Amino acid sequence: GIQVEQSPPDLILQEGANSTLRCNFSDSVNNLQWFHQNPWGQLINLFYIPSGTKQNGRLSATTVATERYSLLYISSSQTTDSGVYFCAVNFGNEKLTFGTGTRLTIIP
Amino acid sequence: DTEVTQTPKHLVMGMTNKKSLKCEQHMGHRAMYWYKQKAKKPPELMFVYSYEKLSINESVPSRFSPECPNSSLLNLHLHALQPEDSALYLCASSLRTGGGTSGLSYEQYFGPGTRLTVT
Question: Is B88 on the interface with A (CB under 8 A)?
Fold first, then answer.
């Protein structure tokens, strides 16, 4: 069946460190989004990136659709970056399928 | 403005109660969604509305009853829930639903959620 896997499941870093989060998906996609879920549950849109590379401040993302993966880069981590990061994929229907998530903890 | 609002933020209800969750957006989006998220799990799709018509029901039990009275508003009516229904309920919207032969897809925007506890 359709699968969206993220790695690593958990990541603990010192403030100021850089990190790379990975999202693998099992089929070709129409849409891929990256979200940050803060401790209060709010899903914050980071990137809408079905292919290519985008940057927004300390965050950037790359999706290689032909190889079925996407990467989220976070540079110079801050404690406010803590939370769960989800990728979510649309496989050409009306549904958004969420990945398994990466829980990021930034230690001061 | 990319804001989706949800009320209430928190809800505690008994198994015999009837309550409703409300979601609103004023972005002109014509697709709206309900998701359910259990602790330490990703959100799971429950319902999709397209142009105020129910498009997808992911085999959700009938004790959850969605309603889309107009293009800006989405409700989720709750009745006779079970303790295992306790979860974060998230609403989302997008310009359209996408899919089909067009191959188009649209960015979804989420509300802050309603944290539901069933006692």
Answer: yes
